[in-house]
Amino acid sequence: MTDLLLTSGISIFVVGTAILIFLSTGRTVGDESDILPKLLVMQVLLNWPHFLVSYKLLYGRRENVRAYPLATIIVPLVLLAVVGAAMLPAFGGAGPTAMNLEISYALWVFAALYLAWHYTGQAWGVMMTFAHLSDLQINSRERLMLRGGFRVLILWHVVWGIQTLPSYSVLTPFQTDIAMSIVNILGICAFLVGALTLLQIARRSGNLDLRIAGAWLAIYLWYLLLWIAPAAFLLVQLSHALQYMIFPARVELNTHPRKGVITRLGFLYAACVLGGLLVFYLPELWFVSPVGNPTIGTIFGVLVNIHHYYTDSAIWKLRRSDVQSRLFKHLDH
What does UniProt give as the signal peptide span (predicted)? Predict the structure, then answer.
């Protein structure tokens, strides 16, 4: 029940309620001056720690440097090099408080669109984890249908995101009402195909783990909310973060002895909250641009986002025996 609530149940309830409120009143989260500050507090307590805990997973084991050289070394160095270039006058920058606007904007856009792969990848991983735990066999055709639907969501996210960008000739075909209508129709078709596929799995197996169906439904509700109320994006971020946090916690429980594990988890969570403040909040106070350009504090936060998306796609592969061991070790007892 805890798995169901944290990975999808709470999200479905909150996001579903937000959708119903918008449809019935036309008001979004952004319209509620008393709700928005509470959501920002939840950013500190939930969303930012979910970024930081991935670094504990990545750099907490020495062997990961050898197992994931791109995630641990190469990608961070490339991102740091790009950010460093954005500060240099040769590339149009003027130091840490006046980063090159074009490079900074490109990093932000890349992070915003890369997020689509991250959201759908995590949702798929959650579904496959619970399929493994419930010993549910999903055949290749069913995987194609379900994962194909997630690919459609990636396309929807990209087109939806491009709609908010300045008009460029290369983007113009994707910034039309027709383009948005096409991906909306594709999204509806993907939902229907996915629902029929899950029903087929349930009929064939005689049962379907609610945690699998819940993770599938949750992400479609996230994108439905983004379509009808973009100002409620914080709810989607928080839902994604909550869905993620249970998995690092399970790894921690399986990696260390049970004695004192609650205290250990408490210290780890507190360290992640503090780390989130250091990474995402304090740099915004330390670096203030005199000309209104992005600062290194802002761009460093974007860099962390991009690296987090790549890191999670690297370290959470269920086909790896070490990942299975750390996630499912408690089932051996």
Answer: none
